[in-house]
Amino acid sequence: MLRVVVDPGVLLSGLIAPAGPPGALMERWSRGIVQFVTSPLLIQEFTDVALRPKFRTWFSEQEARDVARLLAAATEAHVDVETEVPLPRDGGDAYLVHLTVEAQAFALVTGDKELRDHARTSGLRILTPVETLDILQEWEQR
Asked: What is the pTM of this model?
């Protein structure tokens, strides 16, 4: 099974637009086709952002908390650690890079252009949701 670290922004996009690629990725996770790798920092970042008032148009605070609980219960959880890898310029995203390396995940899935650009210098596999879905589709057809 493909194991990936998913940027909280992708998770939020999946809740906002379930018919889009992030939503399709979450749907495959719910069916056990892909395993999400998380950490306390990732779940906290998701929760903090999801509870912002601007997201009430798409989901309630309770729904945000429910998804956070599901992430904590139904993902491969790892502790937050620092690794010796090149880090992105945005230090706030360093925990995602550390988690991907520490967990030996297949990839970090993000829509963040700066993080994706970081793949060129770090050697880390960083994919968009669409790229991840393409890989999953190939795996499903085998």
From this structure: 0.91
